[in-house]
Automatic annotation (TrEMBL):
The UniProt record lists the keyword Membrane: yes
Swiss-Prot/TrEMBL keywords: Membrane, Transmembrane, Transmembrane helix
InterPro entries, per database record: DUF6090 (IPR045749)
TM regions (residue ranges): 21-40
Listed name of the protein: Uncharacterized protein
Record-linked Pfam families: DUF6090 (PF19578)
Length: 240
């Protein structure tokens, strides 16, 4: 009988040990799971903090490049308006299409072939930060779809318009310089009044019309750059 009770006692002790083991094992599993979840939460928090810092850095970089676009566009606008104003002196019938006539430093009657046939400059957006931003994964750090679409539209549209409009200018300028190589080299017309070659003036009209069209792109750059800078400022001030 005593042996019987001893066996029962041993079995109970073994069962108790097994129960304690399972409790210990479950506790270990719970600790591991909690540790993993905590580590994931910390990683998520670190990633969010990194993305927030990257967002500030990228947007400030793009904003600074947009300001450079504004400055570049302004300089080109002044340059082209001066050329158009000078051509208006050569051909007073040329309509500037509501552009202000820019006061010229040299308004003498001497014909300046350089101003008439100067090779134009192309606008190119400063986009190094934007390219890095897109390669990095823009949607990771900015969830503002409106801003993302505006940025993509700006850089795509600028590239397309510049390729088309400046391509036209280059073609017309090349034809003008080819057709008027003699005038460019020997400068037979000494004063503005001497230039009475209607064909030459017509070719110049065509050239300056293409420049006039290109100005529309530059004013577009100014408008869209200012709009994007405002959007970026709002996004940077948004704490959510």
């Amino acid at each position: 009988m005593i042996k019987f009770f001893r066996n029962i006692r041993q079995k109970l002790l073994a069962a108790d040990k097994t129960a304690n083991y399972f409790k210990y094992a479950i506790g270990e599993v719970v600790l591991v799971v909690v540790g993993i979840l905590l580590a994931l939460q910390i990683n998520t928090w670190n990633d969010n903090r990194k993305y927030a810092n990257d967002k500030i850095e990228f947007l400030n970089g793009i904003k600074n490049e947009l300001k450079l676009d504004l400055k570049f566009a302004d300089n080109l606008i002044i340059r082209y308006q001066k050329q158009l104003s000078y051509f208006n002196m050569v051909d007073t019938t040329y309509h500037l299409h509501d552009l202000d006539i820019v006061p010229l430093a040299d308004s003498s009657d001497v014909l300046d072939y350089r101003k008439l046939m100067e090779k134009p400059l192309s606008f190119k957006a400063y986009n190094a930060t934007y390219q890095s931003f897109m390669a990095y994964g823009s949607t990771k750090i900015i969830r503002n779809k409106e801003l993302l679409i505006s940025l993509q539209s700006y850089y795509t549209r600028i590239h397309e318009l510049n390729s088309s409009l400046y391509g036209t200018i280059e073609k017309v300028e090349s034809e003008l310089n080819w057709n008027r190589a003699y005038e460019k080299k020997y400068k037979p017309y000494k004063t503005i009044k001497d230039l009475n070659d209607k064909q030459f003036i017509a070719e110049l009209n065509y050239f300056f019309d293409s420049i006039h069209s290109y100005l529309a792109l530059l004013f577009y750059v100014k408008d869209k750059s200012n709009e994007l800078i405002d959007q970026i400022d709002k996004e940077l001030n948004n704490k959510h």
